[in-house]
Hints:
The first copy, chain A, is of the alpha+beta class.
Amino acid sequence: MFLHTVFLLSFLLSTSHATVQDFCVADLKSADGPAGFPCKPAAKVTSDDFVFAGLTETANVTNIINGAVTPAFVGQFPGVNGLGLSAARIDLGPAGVIPLHTHPGANELLLVTQGYILAGFISSSNVVYQKLLKKGELMVFPQGLLHFQIAAHKRKATAFAIFSSANPGLQILDFALFASDFSTPLITQTTFLDPALVKKLKGVLGGSG
Amino acid sequence: MFLHTVFLLSFLLSTSHATVQDFCVADLKSADGPAGFPCKPAAKVTSDDFVFAGLTETANVTNIINGAVTPAFVGQFPGVNGLGLSAARIDLGPAGVIPLHTHPGANELLLVTQGYILAGFISSSNVVYQKLLKKGELMVFPQGLLHFQIAAHKRKATAFAIFSSANPGLQILDFALFASDFSTPLITQTTFLDPALVKKLKGVLGGSG
Amino acid sequence: MFLHTVFLLSFLLSTSHATVQDFCVADLKSADGPAGFPCKPAAKVTSDDFVFAGLTETANVTNIINGAVTPAFVGQFPGVNGLGLSAARIDLGPAGVIPLHTHPGANELLLVTQGYILAGFISSSNVVYQKLLKKGELMVFPQGLLHFQIAAHKRKATAFAIFSSANPGLQILDFALFASDFSTPLITQTTFLDPALVKKLKGVLGGSG
Amino acid sequence: MFLHTVFLLSFLLSTSHATVQDFCVADLKSADGPAGFPCKPAAKVTSDDFVFAGLTETANVTNIINGAVTPAFVGQFPGVNGLGLSAARIDLGPAGVIPLHTHPGANELLLVTQGYILAGFISSSNVVYQKLLKKGELMVFPQGLLHFQIAAHKRKATAFAIFSSANPGLQILDFALFASDFSTPLITQTTFLDPALVKKLKGVLGGSG
Amino acid sequence: MFLHTVFLLSFLLSTSHATVQDFCVADLKSADGPAGFPCKPAAKVTSDDFVFAGLTETANVTNIINGAVTPAFVGQFPGVNGLGLSAARIDLGPAGVIPLHTHPGANELLLVTQGYILAGFISSSNVVYQKLLKKGELMVFPQGLLHFQIAAHKRKATAFAIFSSANPGLQILDFALFASDFSTPLITQTTFLDPALVKKLKGVLGGSG
Amino acid sequence: MFLHTVFLLSFLLSTSHATVQDFCVADLKSADGPAGFPCKPAAKVTSDDFVFAGLTETANVTNIINGAVTPAFVGQFPGVNGLGLSAARIDLGPAGVIPLHTHPGANELLLVTQGYILAGFISSSNVVYQKLLKKGELMVFPQGLLHFQIAAHKRKATAFAIFSSANPGLQILDFALFASDFSTPLITQTTFLDPALVKKLKGVLGGSG
């Protein structure tokens, strides 16, 4: 009986599992495609591929926004490839701010793990949905909408954002406008902002044009 | 033989098509769901449900942007419900501008049908991709990224945008910031814009807070 | 100029946004469908719909597994409807265990927020991938595969699980076998378990048949 | 210990499963939507909802094609709603034919269970892929492409088609052309067929116009 | 402050954007997969990749159908790879016809840009939905259903078709039957068409068998 | 006229079909990705790629379960790549059993082709749905849920399972627990099973740890 079972088992394994997998750990050295990266061969996959330890530490927030975003997207965490999930850690000093931004490719679920965060998003109908969140509270931000997070109550704060894609993207409004080579005349034409202000912010953020 | 055929036909029609359809024209009076609106009963669907005549005319562009966007989303064109497609007409007077905006729920394919349009988008990596388009040219804008269209060569222009969703959404940056009740202190905190400028633009666009 | 702008804005709002939304907060009183629940009308949606405060407290773990799972699926958190995301809080006393289980409808991303957790899953090829996780570490569990979490180092632990569906499901192996009315003869035939053991575990977990 | 366990179990069941399900048996009396029909309440779902007994018998094939297609789409088999699967039984008398047809909404996997079937499809590149199939053999037909099945070797044959949608659709070329009210002038313009032949076939199949 | 900001920016760019993109311009030299082609490296992507200028000119329509279809599918326009959109230009001389055809892999949105077009499709229930369209009007054709376009009012006409896939496919009924090597006996068996007519049309369209 | 037509045809074929296909037969020698394997070049695809003859014979069932599962997943049947369909043949001797198992990546439609099969699944709510099936009857098993099949009425039985994925996966509960290197202490902690029983079953099924 033992041999027969092992025979069945071997048969199932050898034929059905030789080439396909339950998961698809990214082979980041290959070109990605619309659905993600090619899979690392199953034989080379280990437990470590499914674990990411890069979000355990508080990031340095001594910068202009008094905050930092540390991503665990597929580029950093190959195990999420094809699974429709990824994450980022948000660290904020007192009154730290994650400026207005969007994730063009994913919805977001925010979990506050320390302090208080005022978070909000603006809908296509120009309605602002915002809330002061405390530790353990969750807030969702629908895909592609402008949103922000601010540490409240003069305390530092930490949160984890989980995205509905392994590759959510991150477009920070100020960086798109003022840290790019988007020309000042085009910015003023398409935003009604003042040229002097645009130039000043480009100076701070490193934009050209 | 004739009777048998008709019998087969009737059988197929009565059993397989009584309750399901090849399409799902939106019943806009019912609540929508994540995949769209419930379907109008097949018996009430006519050719007109698959046709939209609301984009035939040039829109009035005597406004601040010298331009207009006329949507043919599922709310206007119920026939696209569930089909992953919708459209909008863009009319621009000479030097008219469609200000920076995103479609949070869809990719966009732009087709210029009159004049010249300078169009561009900014990626998550803060790279600007822009091009002067002429009649008959196409440009794609990936989902959720900031983009703009400007009539060029001092001539009026027309284009049609086609979206990869029946409900693409439309978030116009200036309206989100300055035509909403997003508070001025929060705007300045999350964008680094000058409070005086924010207040001025709110005055123009009707925002509060 | 002001009037023209407001006119444009009103036009866009009234025509394109009357019936469609960027989100779809669940109307839990209506029947759900394959893609989720019908949407609550936009006019009744408030900031609170996007926030969930039910995972802020440590759950009572004085039970047989010395652990608890508190869900924030669409049934508890209507704001995640249609967004491909939901969450659960895992509380474990010292040596507490979340027994072998699957989420038939979602991939899972686990974030440890307190203590140490030994977590693992078994693939279709019968390979066990397991790892001792500490605070801030992430582990991903592909959809439908058996997995477990155990508090390690004799300390209590907390984690948050985020799922790639608003309705991930939760099939706990022991409950499926021993807390259901799955008949003992069928269990022994389909698992090779001993009838005496099956009856004993049914006694503990409340199963019949 | 027993009480604690049951408490945990009850908690999980009452909170996480009150409103959501692992499946979505169609409530055919409600309007369907793009993703299928609303779900029957879980409390009313029984084992019978997951079983379909309508394909057990050989269909009457005394008709013009000496064949019959009996569907088990969502309209007949509500249990497949939302599951991306449905089926049909194909019965053929000796030399019976399922005429050229497409399934606009699904790929098809054909399983021959009796006799011999010559089956084939034509690609967008106008290449014909055809094969004589025997009992137990499978053939796959990509979505939306014209295909056919013919009983071979002068014997009756049976097959089961499984589709990648609960609502695959079925467009039979001859019925679309000659059993509809597609006008004869339009048919001849769009197919190059001879008007006399069109009228003759309309006479046989019941078309008008 | 400046340095800190640039540091944050650099960090975000280098870690999160090194390997993933907001878009996936097709690398047509690599093998495609079910979701499309592998992506061209981001560093090699330019504005030109998002623009297609191949539909600006009227195609030559001096042929049997007095019409032409010029595709801008992913094979011609690599920028649409993975975006669920593509296009084609339809040119028709007076009374020109795009014969009955299907797109097996996409829904279609037709925009008339010149003249008058009579367009229609046939459903799985053998109902014909047709309409005379004028400039600026839109019509949708659900995936996989037979449809046609004819220039009306004795004038030439132009339209643009937009598809819900980068690779919609195009199966022209007459070409599938009469320009392929589909054997005449099989055609007559599966369509009821007359062998003499089949042979005649094969002669015109170049089919064999 | 003939030349013009052929010209049109050639044009369409050469431009639109040079690089894209209606199907994507797996090139199993290349690495797969989240959506499946890269496509074999169209020029090398033949009718045989769409046909699978590996399920025509009754499998050897002289083993511990008196049954066998023979897969026709993408690894065996490359033609189903990207089509959302695959199959398996189930052979059972009298009283043969396919033990409790899940398909983590697909829904299943079971078709009995010989004998009687008692089949059932257990939901997330721990409800057992089971039914005695006879020849020609269908039963669906929603994705990721534990299910089983047993030959009934002391007769051998055959069934075909069709899956909603080309790569459904197969996790057999007993093999996951007792044919893997899942350690006995972890098994007993996460299942409440008796260590002695675990060791005995590991001995039979070949597990270690």
